[in-house]
Structures are given as C-alpha cells and as structure tokens.
TrEMBL record:
The lineage of its organism: Eukaryota, Viridiplantae, Streptophyta, Embryophyta, Tracheophyta. PANTHER family: OS02G0740600 PROTEIN. Residues 1-49 are annotated as: Disordered. This is Alpha-N-acetylglucosaminidase family / NAGLU family isoform 1. It comes from Hibiscus syriacus. It comes from the Eukaryota.
C-alpha cells in the first residue's frame, strides 16, 4: 500500500512547511532580499518628506497658538487696567 503523494518527488507536508531548514524551501528568497533595498529607500524618502511637512505644519500651528495666546492675555490685561483705573 503505497500512498499517492500529490506534492510529487516524495516531498511531504512537513518538507514544504518546515521553516527550520530554509535550504529545503524552493529558491528565490535570496533574490528577494537583494532587490528590496531600492523600495526601502524610496519609502524612507516618502516618510521623511511627510515628516518634514508635518513638522512645518506643526510649527506654523504653534506660532498661531502663541500669537493667539499673547493677544488674549493682552486683552485680559487691558480689561483689567480699565476696571482698576475707574476707581
């Protein structure tokens, strides 16, 4: 009673899915690693550009908050001076 193996060449399920021996898997894993550097650099550049934009927007926003706070405090000081000068 010999089993008919649908994977061919005597390989079994364990041979296909065993990760302890990467040489047993079908080839091509080294080729993927060497070609991925360009894509990584491209995405790093995009992320860097995005962070620069975020930094610029945050800086502009903080300047607006600082200016608004300053004018608000000045308004409060003016209102306080007007009420204390009447006496």
């Amino acid at each position: 009673m010999e089993r008919n193996n649908s994977y061919g060449h005597g390989s079994s399920w364990v041979d296909q899915w065993d990760t302890s021996n990467p040489a047993a898997a079908t080839g091509g894993s080294d080729e993927k690693k060497s070609g991925g550097g360009g894509a990584t650099a491209k995405y790093k550049q995009k992320v860097g550009d995005g962070l620069e934009k975020t930094k610029s927007v945050a800086s502009t926003g903080m300047k607006k908050v600082k200016q608004g706070t300053s004018s608000g405090i000045q308004w409060i000081k003016d209102k306080y001076r007007k009420t204390t000068h009447k006496n």
